[in-house]
Amino acid sequence: MLQLMILPFLACLVLTGIHAYLGMHIIKREVIFVDLALAQIAALGAVVAFLFGIELHTMNAYIFSMVFTFFGATIFALTRLKKKEVPQEAIIGIVYAVTAAASILVLSKAPMESEHLKDMLVGNILFVKESHILKMLVLYSIIGIFHYIYRKNFFAVSDGRDKAVKQKINVRWWDFLFYASLGVVVTSSVEIAGVLLVFSYLIVPAVCAIMITDNLKARLFIGWAIGTVTSLIGLYLSATYDFPTGAAIVCAFGMVLILIWPTTILFKKITVYGN
Amino acid sequence: MKGSLKVFALTLLILLAASQYSFCEQKVNVVATTSDLADLARNIGGDKVNVVSLSKGNQDLHTIEPRPSMVINIKNADMLIVVGMDLDMWAKSLADAARNSKVMIGSRGYVDASANIVKLDVPAKVDASMGDIHIYGNPHYWISPANGRIIVKEICDKLIELQPENAGYFKKNYDDYVSKLDQSIKKWKEMLKPFSGTKIITYHESWPYFAEEFDLKIDGFIEPKPGISPSPSHVLSLEEKIKSDGVKLILVEPFYDIREAEKIAKDTGIKNVVVASSVGGLSGTGTYLEMLDYDISKIADALKN
After folding, report:
1. Is B66's Cβ below 8 Å from some Cβ in A?
2. Closest listed residue to residue B46, CA positions, set B179, B177, B184, B181
C-alpha cells in the first residue's frame, strides 16, 4: 500500500509547491474561481481541436488548449476594470458557465463521447506516473523561476491596480502574464489531479497561511507546510479507509482549515491580551 | 548422528512436500471489472478461486471512481477479466498503477472476455473524423445469455491454463453451468416468443445483443449520443417515432435518468421498465442467471398487459 501511495505523494508535493504560491496571488486578486474557468477553457480548446480532426492528448491538441487558455488570460487581463461595479468574479463565473456549456454543444455534434471531456477535468492522482510528475516538475520550475525573477511586478499587480500604475508597471501585460502562467499550470494539474483537488491546493494553503501571518515569506512556507501535511493526511485516509484519493485529500483540506481557523483566533486573542 | 541426519532429511522432505502441496492448493486470485464477469468466474472457479469484482451492478461502467483497494486487488491478482472493447478502460489505468506483470494486457493472466464474441455495431470504416468512438463495436455483449456461454468458456480455458492440475474440476463446473444456462435460455425464449418482433426503445445503446437473441427490434435511444442528454427536438422525434412505428416498451437501467424515460412513456402511453444490465443492479439480480430471469420476466409482464 505504501508503495502505491509514493507517486501520488510526490505529485502532491509538486502540486503544493506551485499552487500554494499562486494561491496567494489569487486571494489577493479576489479571483477565487479563476482556475476552474481556465481549466474549462483549456478543455473547450481540446474539444474544438477534435472538431478539426485533432486527436485528444496529442501535442496539437495541447497547442489548441494553450491558445484557448491564452485567449482566456487575455479576457481576464482586459476585464479588470478601474470601476469595481462589475466584480471580476462575475466575469469569471460567466466565462466558466459559457465555456462549460459550449463544450457540451460541441460534444453533441462531434463524434466523441462525453467521457473524454471528463478525462480532461477529472484526472486521478492515484494513477499518476513518474513521467507526469517529471513533466510537471520541469514546467512548474520554469514558471516558478519566471515568477521569482519578476516577483516585484507580479506582486505589485496583484496588490492593486493603482499601486502598480504608480510604479509604472504595465498592468494589462503583467495581468496577462499572470493568467497565462496560471492557465498553463492549472491545465496540466487538472489533467492529473482533477478540478476539485487543484482548486483546494490553490486556495486552502494560501487561506490558512494568510490567517496565521502577514509576512509574505512566512506565508509561503506555512502554505507549503500545510499543503504537505494535508496531502499526507488525505493519502493516509484514502489508503486506510479505501476512499477515492482525490476526494479524501480535498476533505482533509477542509478538516485542516476547520482546525486552523479557531486556533488562529485564539492565538490572536492571546497575543492581544499579552500586549 | 546418522539417525538425526535421517530425521532431518525426512523432516525436510515432508516440509518440502507440504509446501508443494499448499502451493498446489493455492487459490487463483481472480479480479473482474464487473459483477457479471465476477459471478461467471465464481461459477467456474468454485472453491479453487477467490473472486473480486471492481464495480457494483448499480454503477455506470463508463464512470467508475477508482479507490486504492482496487489497485491492491489487481496487484495481488493472478487473473484479470475485463469486458474490453474500450468499455472498462479505467481497468488499464488501475493495472498500470498496480504494476502486476502477471495481468498486464497481453500477458498470461489477462482475459479479455470479448475475444470470441461476434461483435455488433462495428463501424465499417474508421477514419480520423470518427475519433475513437466504439471502434470495436458495441461493448454491452454480456447481457445476451448466448454470449454468457462464450464468456464462461473463455474463463474456463484460462483457469485451466493457470492451474492445469484442477482442469477436471473447472471443466465439470463449466459443463454444469452451461447446461443450466442452456435450460434457462430455452425457458426465456419461450417466455418472450409471443413478443417476437416487438419494437422497443432503450435509454443507452446497451441492449442490441439481448434484442438480437430474443428477436426484439430496437427502434431508437433516449440518449441521442452516449453521455449526452436528449434535446427537445430529439424527444419530440422519438415520441413521434414511438407512435408511428408502434413501439411498445422503453428499457432503462437504474443509473440513468429514469424520469426522462417515464415522461416519454407517459406522453406516448407505452410501458417503461427498469431493468438491470449488470448483476446486482437491482434487488433480486444477485447472479447472472437471476439478473436475466428478472429482466426477462419484467419485459414479458410489461408486454403481456
Report:
1. yes
2. B177
Q: What pTM did the predictor assign?
A: 0.79
Q: Is A192 helix (H, G, I), strand (E, B) or coil?
A: helix
> CB-based contact (8 Å) between A108 and chain B?
yes
Domain end (from B156, B185, B214): B185
Contacts of B96 in chain A (CB under 8 A): 127, 129
For B84-137, write each residue's pLDDT tens digit.
998 888 888 888 889 899 999 889 999 999 999 999 988 876 554 444 456 788
Its ipTM equals 0.71
Quote the distance between the C-alpha of residue A237 and its chain's center: 23
Cα dihedral: A175, A178, A184, A190 (round 10): -100
Distance of CA A161 to the CA centre of its chain: 22
Sorted by sequence, the CB contacts under 8 Å of residue B71 that are 6+ apart come out as A4, A126, B94, B97, B98
Task: Please name which of A190, A203, A177 lies closest in space to residue A65, comparing C-alpha atoms.
Answer: A190
| Residues sharing a CB contact under 8 Å with residue A17, sequence separation 6 or more, in sequence order | A140, A144, A224
Tell me which residue range forms the domain holding B146: 25-185
Report the domain count for chain B: 2
Is B130 exposed, middle or buried (CB count within 10 Å of its CB: 0-12, 13-18, 19+)?
A: middle
